[in-house]
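Fig. S4 source data, part A: sequence.
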Amino acid sequence: MTGKTWTVNWQSDDNEIISFFSDEKMQTLKSIISERFKGHIFVSTSGTTGFPKWVAISKKAMLLSAKNVNNFINLQKKDSWFSILPSTHMGALAISARAHLSDSKITYGLGPWNPKQFVQQLSVSEASLSSLVPTQLHDLVNFEILSPTNLRVVFVGGGVLTENLYHEARKLNWPVLPTYGLTEASSQVATSPLSSLDNLEFPEVQILPHFKVEMNETQNLVLRGDSLFTAYITENAEAWDICERKQMEFTTEDKGSVYFSKNLKVACLKIYGRDSHIKKVGGVLVNANGLDKQWKENHKYGEVLLIPDGRLENRVALIVEEMPGPQLLQQIEAFNNSLSKEEKISIVYKIAEIPRTQTGKVNYPQLIKILQ
């Protein structure tokens, strides 16, 4: 992790802005929020308009989330955290809140992400808890790096965790607990239980006690709970817009289902993908997340995405950084064999480097610019 590390005063009623700002812009935002907010954290997030956007979350909401996660993993004062996520990431802020409640130590990773360096620093820290995104876990598996024995839990969220990646990580002794969460919910909404580490089966994701989750008529997940955000703040071309959450519930962009687990005897979630990843191809809805997950079950390269198309509206594309050789066509043919016409990979793009965010997700807007 590089750059500034924010230290949040969780007991203060002061507002805190978590963002790399110029002093002038910081003062402007502070003056705008001081009249309407108290004891809030402002976290930068991606907006659909192209303008900078922040989520306002009360410290009270963050600490409620932290309390429930700490209880869920039976966190003790002797536990300590290793934080490698960017300091502006909700996962890093959540670690700070959890450590505050349990009076636990946090060790921060040094330097840009490097899987071998990460494990060295993690081992030296003797930390028992950490959080990663799937891209980072993939790197650890790719280098066949064993988990340090001091680690008892590593949360993995912020992207699609495939069953294959989970199994490969568990074989290397990584104590992976898959999670589902979002910035607007102060981090985790659902998490796999500690008991899932007793075997190698891909675990169910259990809804945490501080949230109630339902599906609406379009299968979007609807959240209710006291850890939801307060407002969005967007910097437009000529003004700052504040849009407060008016309703008790929050409808996410995530598609999924809620079901009662016969094994866990509790409500669990199954995530299908996000609205932004479910688009029409030739008039038929196609889930890009599902296709990408299916591809990565058998291949360690490439990203399957939906690319705008003038005729079909969108088409399924495979993006690679290097051509794996003549076997590529056979691999695509085998992949397409069980899919509908609209779901099949119909084009392959080779680019020098797939643009990614700080946490390893594909930077979709930047990718589209490269492909145009």
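Fig. S4 source data, part B ends here. The chain has nine helices and 21 strands.
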